[in-house]
Amino acid sequence: MTTLLSADELEARLRDVGTRRYHNLHPFHRLLHDGKLDLGQVQAWALNRYYYQAMIPVKDSSILARMDEPELRRVWRQRIIDHDGHHEGEGGIARWLKLTDGLGLDRHAVTSLRNLLPATRFAVDAYVHFVREKSLLEAIASSLTEMFSPGIIGERVAGMLKNYDFVSRETLAYFENRLTEAPRDADFALDYVKRHARTPEQQEAAIRALEFKCDVLWVQLDALYFAYVDPKMAYPGAFAPKETR
């Protein structure tokens, strides 16, 4: 990029990333939402996705520690509270564990992380390293996948409730909270990026950061697809479903 975009043009470019690269387009999500997976495959998704959920506060803590302005820190720390809660049993991570509990997974097996696919671990760790090593602008821009999440959440909840008798609104409670949290967070991050990406180079860096985050989400689904759908080649030591239905 050699030409400075207006704020509206930059936003349009960022939203176009989601249109082309967000993981709602992945074949695994189509199968998940359309009721084409069995219980074991849904368990594998929830168990592996737990690591991503659990590392969100770690990622956000890294960003928080790099913010010099108290007003920025006051806003960003809400993300950590949303996932960790104020007390034991609260927050998004606890709600995700209600999902894995409801799917019949042993909680220690989930939280121990011993049965993760290697690609899950590598992708999530790469995201944490990205926000630590890149500029604050890039770190914040990478969170802008939240602009696209309400759509996929609505589709996921409706599709899973319709197609799977082993889930309920209670076990899917994590997603209900994200319908209000994600737009709030995305609005703040988008405003920050539009105000602080002041050169063509900074604007391109912000766009590339969002593309990277889309890659992080996409590759996790690649791993699930090839391990549990086609050709079902789960890595030794990874989660092995005990039953299907």
TrEMBL record:
Q: Which InterPro entries match?
A: Haem_Oase-like_multi-hlx (IPR016084), PqqC (IPR011845), PqqC-like (IPR039068), Thiaminase-2/PQQC (IPR004305)
Where on the tree of life does the source sit, at the highest rank?
Bacteria
**EC class:** oxidoreductase
Q: In which pathway does it act?
A: Cofactor biosynthesis; pyrroloquinoline quinone biosynthesis
Query: Pfam families from the entry?
Result: TENA_THI-4
| Catalytic reaction list | 6-(2-amino-2-carboxyethyl)-7,8-dioxo-1,2,3,4,7,8-hexahydroquinoline-2,4-dicarboxylate + 3 O2 = pyrroloquinoline quinone + 2 H2O2 + 2 H2O + H(+)
Q: For the Thiaminase-2/PQQC domain, which residue ranges apply?
A: 12-222
Q: What does this protein do?
A: Ring cyclization and eight-electron oxidation of 3a-(2-amino-2-carboxyethyl)-4,5-dioxo-4,5,6,7,8,9-hexahydroquinoline-7,9-dicarboxylic-acid to PQQ.
Q: Which PANTHER family match?
A: 4-AMINOBENZOATE SYNTHASE, PQQC-LIKE PROTEIN
* HAMAP family tied to this protein: PQQ_syn_PqqC (MF_00654)
Which protein family is named in the record?
Answer: Belongs to the PqqC family.
Give the protein name, as stated in the record: Pyrroloquinoline-quinone synthase
Say which species the protein is native to: Ancylobacter tetraedralis
Taxonomic lineage is: Bacteria, Pseudomonadati, Pseudomonadota, Alphaproteobacteria, Hyphomicrobiales
